[in-house]
Design a protein that fits this description.
Elements: H1 13-22, H2 35-39, E1 44-49, E2 52-58, E3 64-67
Antiparallel strand pairs: 1-2, 2-3
Length: about 70
């Protein structure tokens, strides 16, 4: 795993994939990702997960909805 400056958390698929490969059981606690980093100013994004497309939407009230 890469060493990051103090106060920074690892973000990005390469780092997440490295953690998953080294810990197939999933005992490593997941680091929270900021929703604004995921959405990048959009109200909706599509996520491909195990061949299925999911939609992550932000409501007008700022809540998140994940649908298949």
């Amino acid at each position: 795993m890469l060493a990051l400056p103090s106060g920074q958390s690892p973000v990005g698929p390469a780092l997440v994939a490295d953690d998953a490969a080294s810990d197939p059981v999933g005992s490593i606690l997941a680091q929270p990702l900021d929703s604004q980093q995921l959405l990048q100013g959009r109200r909706e994004l599509q996520i491909l997960h195990q061949g299925q497309v999911y939609r992550l939407q932000q409501t007008r009230q700022g809540k998140l909805i994940l649908t298949k």
